[in-house]
Amino acid sequence: MAFFLDEIDSCMWDYLRQTDKKIVLYGMGDGAEKIKSVLDDIGVQVADIMASDEFVRGHSFLGFRVKKLSEIEQLYGDSFLILVCFGSQLPEVMEHIYSIAEKHELYAPNVPVVGEGLFTLDYAREHRSELEKVYSMLADEQSRLVFENVIRYKLSGRLDYLKACESPREEMFDLLHIGGEEIYVDLGAYNGDTIVEFLNETGMNFKKIYAMEPDHKNYIKLKRRLYMIGSGMLEAYNAGAWDCETTMRFSLRAGRSSKVQEDDPQSLANPARYREVSMMSVDHMLRGEAATFIKYDVEGSEERAIEGARQTISAHRPKLSVALYHRNEDMFAIPLQIAAINRKYRFYLRHHPYIPDWDTNLYCI
Fold first, then answer.
1. Is the peptide bond before 356 cis (omega within 30 degrees of 0)?
2. Fewer beta carbons within 10 Å, N or C terminal of the chain?
3. Using H for helix, E for strand and C for coil, what is the string for 294-353?
4. How far is CA 253 from CA 33, 216, 223, 258, 273, in A?
């Protein structure tokens, strides 16, 4: 059977090994460190590091003096390419990146947020049967477009694939038919921002909200932000979503990036950067009670957290919103896992505006 993978014969990493152009990293922080590490591993040399003009203050990063784009242009003329090493959903930042891409060769390398390895063409071919099966399960044409374009993006690093399949984040609520009688479970609730979205969509009409957030600072912010909801209507837990009740080491990172550090020697070598966090399954939390809507955005622990809701998903078939961008295998492993638990779901895939593919989600109805 013909499949779009058959049309692809190379990926961005192969191209970077072969090009004579100077390679410039755009951005500072974890993303740049991770991408430079990958390039070092495959024998590709970085020529320079740039940042947006307002962030250039004559400082250095990874041994390079950080430069403005205008300096890079003066140094290398047309003989350079840019690798975007950070993520953003801010419209003005995204438009700035797209404007640079109109003038210069630019890619946004896909490296997994969690886990090892790269989504290469060999990897895609190795998992072709799973990818084909998920593609055949998708419920509408937009889902199939998103699936194909996100895979093409992962292999090429080209942002035009993502831009061509974007849809507004608000479409999630239409797809999921969110109403006023929901029992909402928010896993990875951060500071309550997605609960506020839910409250705005439902006009504060709902039956109950459950929330899990492993980072203590974010959990406190969540409780303060949602002070107006009575304790009988909101159950919030300073815990991570898992498939059993246990404790695990979490990285102490700002924002949404707290994640499980399984078998990570750094967590033992640098204990101040990590803390023990309670983990809980949805089935344990609900104790047989129903949920009508579960949101999963748990920084790479989605498969374990879904397994921890097996009884709930099987018995009550809640609507699901699942992040599909943390691990290489998420695009095929998670839909197949959910289908194996309950065969009655319809599967929709949407990519909401974000560079790179960090707001690609599976919606199960």
1. yes
2. N
3. EEECCCCCHHHHHHCCHHHHHHHCCEEEEECCCCCCHHHHHHHHHHHHCCCCCEEEEECC
4. 16, 11, 19, 5, 8
Q: How far is CA 9 from CA 18, 109, 128, in A?
A: 15, 17, 14
Are the CB atoms for 158 and 101 separated by under 8 Å? no
DSSP code for 359: T
**Shared domain check, 193 and 104:** no
Q: What is the CATH number of the domain that holds 313?
A: 3.40.50.150
pLDDT digits (tens, 9 = 90+) for 68-108: 999 999 999 999 999 999 999 999 999 999 999 999 999 99
Q: Are strands 80-84 and 106-107 parallel, antiparallel or unpaired?
A: parallel
Give the CB-side neighbour count of residue 284, counting CA atoms within 13 A.
17
> Would residue 163 count as lying in a domain?
no
pLDDT of amino acid 192: 96
Q: What φ, ψ does residue 149 adopt, rounded to 5°?
A: -70, -35
Closest residue by Cα to residue 188 from 235, 229, 238: 238
Same domain, 194 and 309: yes
How many domains is the chain built from? 2
Give the CA-trace dihedral at 56, 61, 63, 66, to 10 degrees: -20
Q: Which of 148, 35, 149, 115 is nearest to 326 (CA)?
A: 115
Task: Give every CB contact of residue 361 below 8 A, 6+ residues apart in sequence.
Answer: 172, 321, 322, 323, 324, 349, 350, 351, 352
Run means of pLDDT, 10 residues per run, the chain, 365 residues: 87 97 96 97 97 94 97 97 97 98 98 94 97 98 98 98 96 94 97 96 96 95 93 93 94 57 52 82 97 97 98 98 97 98 97 97 98
List the strands of the sheet with 106-107, edge to edge: 48-50, 22-26, 80-84, 106-107
Considering only CA atoms, which of 109, 106, 82 is closest in space to residue 22? 82
Q: Do 316 and 175 have their domain in common?
A: yes
